[in-house]
Amino acid sequence: MIKPEFIEKANAVSIVDFLAAKGIEPVKAIGKELVYHSPLRDDPTPSFYVNPAKNSFKDFGVDEHRGSVLRLVQLLEQCNFPVAVAKLLEFKGQELGSYANLFLSATEIPKPKANDPKIVFPVQNPVLINYVQSRGIPYSLAKKYLYEVMTTTSDRVYFTVGFVNDSKGFALRNKYFKGCLGEQDITTFDFESRNTVAVFEGFFDFLSALVWFGREAPRIPTVILNTTNNRKKAVAYLRGFKEVNCFFDRDKSGMECFNLLRDRDGLPVNDCSGIYEGFNDFNEFLINTPKKQ
C-alpha cells in the first residue's frame, strides 16, 4: 500500500507543468480550459482539454482518457499506478532512494480487528482509485466524498469505496460488489433554502452530476437515497420543499420510486432523467458522452 502523503504530493503536480516539461504546449484556451493536440494519439484537430484549476484532463477522442495527473502519467508512460506516483515525485525533485520506500511497511498497514472488522481511511488503494476514475470521477472528488473501507469475511480482506450516510453507515461499491456497511440510510447535504431539492438514486450519480456541471459541491439541498429501498426514509425531509428534482435510473426500479414519491407520497416531483435520455443513469451518461453540450 502506497503511503498516502506520496499520493497527495504526486496528485498535486500540475498537468500543465508536466506536459510543458515534455515539450507539449497548448494551442489555445477556451474559457478556463487549455486545449492541446492529444499526446496520447494522433490528433490533427486539438481535442485534449486540461482544466488547470481542477488539475484534470479529458481527451474527447477517447472516453477512457480522462482524470487526474496520475491517470495521465499512467497513459503517457504506459506504467502502473505506483510507478506513476514515483515518476511524479521525481518530477517534483523528491528523492525516493528506493522504489520500495513508496510503500507502507507491513507493520504500518492497518489490519481489521476481530471485534471491529472494518477500518476506514481516505481512498488510496490504486485499484480503487482506478475504479473510481474509470467511472469518470476525478481523484479530487473521490478523496473529498469517498472513503476506503476494508472488511473481512471468512478470513479474507475486501476493499471497497464507501459513501457515508446520515446514520454513519456506508454505501459500498467496487468493480464486483454493491452493498452497505452498518445501518442503511440516505445521505443529505442541507441548506437553508426550502425551494428546490435534488434527489439522486446512488452516490456515483451524485458525483457524476458534480462532474458534469463543473462543481465541487452541491449548491442546493441534495439527497442521495443510496438505494431506492430508502425512499420512505427520505419522504419526511423532502416534504419541506416546493420542488423535488429527481435524477433516478431510467429503469423499472427508478421509475417505480419516482411514481411512488409522486402518487403515494404526494410530493411535487420533477423527472430530470431526460438529461441522460438514452442511458440508464447519470454515471453511464457521463462515461459515454464525449463532450458536454
Topology (SSEs and partners):
Layout: H1 4-11, H2 15-21, E1 28-30, E2 33-36, E3 48-51, E4 56-59, E5 66-67, H3 69-77, H4 81-91, E6 118-122, H5 126-134, H6 139-145, E7 147-153, E8 156-164, E9 170-174, E10 177-181, E11 187-189, E12 196-200, H7 203-212, E13 222-224, H8 231-238, E14 243-247, H9 252-264, E15 269-271, H10 282-288
Parallel strand pairs: 12-13, 12-14, 14-15
Antiparallel strand pairs: 1-2, 2-3, 3-4, 4-5, 6-7, 7-8, 8-9, 9-10, 11-13
Helix pairs in contact: 1-4, 3-4
Q: Could you characterize what this model shows?
A:
- This protein has 293 residues and is an alpha+beta fold.
- It is 30% helix and 23% strand.
- It has helices spanning 4-11, 15-21, 69-77, 81-91, 126-134, 139-145, 203-212, 231-238, 252-264, 282-288; strands spanning 28-30, 33-36, 48-51, 56-59, 66-67, 118-122, 147-153, 156-164, 170-174, 177-181, 187-189, 196-200, 222-224, 243-247, 269-271.
- The strands form 3 sheets. Strands 1-2-3-4-5 form a 5-stranded antiparallel β-sheet, with helices on one face. Strands 6-7-8-9-10 form a 5-stranded antiparallel β-sheet. Strands 11-13-12-14-15 form a 5-stranded mixed β-sheet.
- Helix 1 (4-11) crosses helix 4 and helix 3 (69-77) packs across helix 4 (81-91).
- The chain is globular, with a radius of gyration of 21 Å.
